[in-house]
């Protein structure tokens, strides 16, 4: 509050105080906002209150259809509230882009006593949060093993995202978008018989999955054994895993894995290819025939 004492026309003093113009720090585009300014104490009753727009060129925009506020833009609403010795004037308006950066002035005027008190608001900052589309998967993939995503932003202001502005978020379920695809695992390819002392290759083909990352494990279950044991490269076994390559459909991957038995000697054993993928709750297993 700023207090004043003004001389009346008959030499007596009029004491009063006028507040600053108060309102929100930010205004949302198209959403009603209200500013207010108050006077206290013995300011004369027959006072006129005017609201005026002051643009950056320091000019007042004189257009209004409100009799209480001849200098406010069209569409404004001016109301008053009285409580004992306090009179508060409210200016309600819907901000537009043209209001960004302007100041609003509230004037308390009493012509007979030659009183004019002005209070000017800080610059009005108009903001519009962007309308954000859902995440879209673009049809053209370049490079073809990378999925391009896109969102569209509409009706935001200003162009730059200011500090303190809350972020807008969107989520996309890869499964719902049809991007996640489980692998199709072939049966284990193996020779019809195993010649003692000669190397043997078992292979398994994995196709149709997305994304391309897989976990592939080879296991061995000996004759009469209930539990399979994970195999590792050794003098007896060697595992080979091809790199996943994009399939012809451009939306899935394919690859092959091989188990090489360098020194086959056990009869009745079984070999298992176990494939894990993020689309699977439990891994897929393929088991070789017994020799």
What does the model show?
With 291 residues, the protein is mainly β. The chain folds into 2 domains: 2-126, Sandwich (Immunoglobulin-like), CATH 2.60.40.10; 184-287, Sandwich (Immunoglobulin-like), CATH 2.60.40. 0% of the residues lie in helices and 40% in strands. The protein has no helices and 23 strands. It has strands spanning 2-7, 13-18, 27-28, 33-41, 48-54, 77-83, 86-93, 103-110, 115-120, 126-127, 131-132, 136-137, 149-150, 153-154, 184-185, 200-209, 215-221, 229-230, 237-241, 245-246, 253-261, 270-276, 284-287. The strands form 7 sheets. A 5-stranded antiparallel β-sheet has the order 1-2-4-7-6, with no helix packed on it. Strand 8 and strand 9 form a beta hairpin. The radius of gyration is 39 Å and the shape is rod-shaped. The N and C termini lie far apart (98 Å).
Strand neighbour order, sheet with most strands: 1-2-4-7-6
Number of domain modules: 2
Largest sheet: 5 strands, antiparallel
Q: Order of helices and strands, N to C?
A: EEEEEEEEEEEEEEEEEEEEEEE
Q: CATH homologous superfamily of the largest domain? A: Immunoglobulins
In CATH, what is the class of the largest domain?
Mainly Beta
Give me the Rg, rounded.
39 Å
Architecture of the largest domain in CATH?
Sandwich
Strand content: 35-45%
Q: Kindly state the number of beta strands.
A: 23
What share of the residues lie within helices? under 10%
CATH topology title of the largest domain: Immunoglobulin-like
- SSE-based structural type: mainly beta
The separation of the N and C termini measures 98 Å
What is the mean pLDDT? 82
How many DSSP helices?
Answer: 0
Q: Which consecutive residue ranges, at least 5 long each, have pLDDT under 50?
A: 5-12, 58-70
Outline type? rod-shaped
Protein name: Ig-like domain-containing protein
Keywords: Immunoglobulin domain
Organism: Alligator mississippiensis (American alligator)
Domain Ig-like: 30-121, 183-289
